Amino acid sequence: MVKYYTRACNFYYGNLSKKLVKKKSSFPLCGNKEISFDQIEIFSKNKKKISSRIISLKEINFLPKSIKFRVTQDIKKITSKRVFFNKKNYALMGVLNMTPDSFSDGGKFNTNKKAFKRIREMIDSGADIIDIGGESTRPQSKIIFESIEWKRIKTLVKKFKSFFPKTLLSVDTRKSLVIKKSIKYNIDIVNDVSCFKFNKDYFKMIKNKNLWKIIHHMQGTPQTMQINPKYHHVLLDIYDFFEREIAKLKSDKYSKKIILDPGIGFGKNLKHNLMILNKISIFHSLGFPILIGTSRKRFINQISKNFDTKERLGGTLSSVLFSLSQGIQIFRIHNVNEIKQGILVFKALINK
Question: Among 45, 174, 297, 312, which one carries the catalytic annotation?
């Protein structure tokens, strides 16, 4: 049986986009008239054989009935307005690692005084979400006891809403005990890199809770994920994974509160990461907001080589702006102020 996938492409921006949408020459991306498209790439997969072709929107009417039906359904999702948690078309998620061993900032903010100061700095710089984690999930990191993980973050989680009531709180954890305790303090987002599979009780803890649930893709575990990762077709394999996980949440009372994260650097090599980012707009046809975490990741070093820097800010900003131009809505980042500045300038330029 052949399976088809639809990717929006050939984008327009700003006033030009609005004019084209008004004339019905292009379709709005995710309900946002400031980004629109007038072409789609159709992937077909028949067992191991995969092919693709790009067509204009007008050519959809000439497709065979079976393909036309699937593409039409996909376009409804691609153009539908996203259920979102602010009035903007994007959100910045500031990273706060309460760990001694995270790959980029381990040990920098792992006291409560430093952490609260850092949270305030990120919010003042434009963060809409703060993502707090107490266990490193970098490649080959060690698993820690859930009691230790909770001890690292509990004061922040307990007091967060008292100090920052208008900012969304995300908890980055694979442990059911940690999430069970966190839910008591009105957290907004569950960010589990194992996609609720590390602990068997995890899914029970979050089902039918009024939380945003991040469906995160990772091949293997943090201990094994970078040992020769392989895919048949990384883009379509992740798409199929998302479909399966979304189906599991259909019976959830809050099944619309889903965020998709393809997991850049989690069980992917450079070629995989670049393919995902290059054609990330394929995931819009699933109908949910998309998050990417490219901040300071190793693929930036693999590309820049001798031009690498400690914070990899240039590479991070480039990947964020490219993804923003494809309609991605949520960016998990360390350098909030600089990324916010880059986005504001970028949007001002493309909206003219």
Answer: 297
pTM, two decimals, is: 0.94
Residue 247's pLDDT is: 96
Q: Are the beta carbons of 168 and 149 closer than 8 angstroms?
A: no
Residue spans per domain, the chain: 2-79, 91-350
Q: Is 87 labeled as catalytic in the residue annotation?
A: no
More confident residue, 105 or 270: 270
Q: Which of 240, 327, 318 lies closest to 288, judged by CA?
A: 327
Tens-digit pLDDT profile for residues 27-63: 999 999 999 999 999 999 998 899 999 999 999 999 9
Q: Measured between alpha carbons, how far is 291 from 55 in angstroms, rounded to an integer?
A: 27
Question: How far is residue 345's CA from residue 183's CA, in Å, rounded to a whole number?
Answer: 37
- Cα-to-chain-centroid distance, residue 87: 18
Token pair in block for residue 200: 């068997």
Virtual CA dihedral for 261, 179, 119, 342, nearest 10 degrees?
0
297 labelled catalytic = yes
Q: Which CA distances in Å does 204 have to 115, 133, 139, 145, 175?
A: 30, 21, 28, 20, 12
* Per-residue pLDDT band at 229 (split at 50, 70, 90): confident
CATH class of 91-350: alpha beta
